[in-house]
Specification:
The chain is α+β, with helices and mostly antiparallel strands and 85 residues long. The chain contains one helix and four strands, in the order αββββ. A four-stranded antiparallel sheet has the order 1-2-3-4, with no helix packed on it.
Amino acid sequence: MKLKVAKVVIGLISVFLLTGCGSTNTDYKGDTSYFRTISNEGNGKIVYDTRTGVEYWISYGYSHVLTVLVDAEGKPLIYDRREEE
C-alpha cells in the first residue's frame, strides 16, 4: 500500500514539474522592429526577422507558434529585402 502511495506521489510531482517548464514570455506584439510581415495567410502569417532576414511562420489561434521556414535542404529561408524596394 505504501509503495502505491509513493508511486502516485512521485507521479504527481513529476507532472507538476514537467508542466511548469514553459516560457511565459509574452513580449511579442506583432510587427515590432524585429519582424515585418511578408504575407497574411488564412490561419497565420509569414514574417521575416529584420536583423537576420530569416523567414518565420506565425500561427494564429489559442497560442502563437513561431516556426522557422526552411528550403529543401533544411536551411532557413532568407527573405530577399530587395523585393521591398
